[in-house]
Amino acid sequence: AQSVTQLDSQVPVFEEAPVELRCNYSSSVSVYLFWYVQYPNQGLQLLLKYLSGSTLVKGINGFEAEFNKSQTSFHLRKPSVHISDTAEYFCAVSPFTGGGNKLTFGTGTQLKVEL
Amino acid sequence: NAGVTQTPKFQVLKTGQSMTLQCAQDMNHNSMYWYRQDPGMGLRLIYYSASEGTTDKGEVPNGYNVSRLNKREFSLRLESAAPSQTSVYFCATLFSRGTNQPQHFGDGTRLSIL
User: Fold this and answer.
1) A102 vs B42: CB contact, 8 Å cut-off?
2) Which 8-state DSSP code applies to residue A63?
3) Any chain A CB within 8 A of the CB of B41?
4) Is A5 on the interface with B (CB under 8 A)?
5) I need a surface site. Which of A8, A98, B42, B97 has the fewest CB within 10 A?
6) Tell me: the pLDDT tens digits for A96-111?
7) In the predicted model, is pLDDT for residue B97 greater than 70?
8) CA of A107: which chain B residue's CA is closest?
9) A62 close to A77: Cβ distance less than 8 angstroms
């Protein structure tokens, strides 16, 4: 079984400041890692994913994340945020094999960008 | 999200009523999923269908039934709605098992049960 922990339920930040959203996971098997973004009244959109290879993954809208196997973390970062980045962000994992590609989600982090 | 269509977008029910949430996809994906989203709890898997003709329970299946009508459609049924089922329901699809592709989500159905 897998579990995902997003310690920060809300992160306020000023526009053009950097931001880091934290994600830690637990799994007895190897997993793929994902970050999704949800804008108000919409479904989830994929920001980026880590499958294998380089531990630094770049995604859409200037976001990037770094996979740290020893710390079982997959933190999301952006060097300079924009008002339009205000949304809820979900970290998720999926096992390499078996399990029907089921995603296990964290509880989400609400990013609020202020002027 | 043009690929995954959920209907209705909003619904209010009374306790004990039944209803079916519909999900249809035009991406020729094999796997389909139903999640519920509750504040502070993220998304939790209710049921999924790895391929046409198969369905399996997820993390929170109690009180729900599903039907994989064909490759395109995957419906979620509440036989006797309860206030605890007030939530936002999302349908998602995936091309194929064993791949590392992400799931694609619909825009959700917001369900309130009084």
Assistant:
1) no
2) -
3) yes
4) no
5) A98
6) 776 667 889 999 999 9
7) no
8) B42
9) no
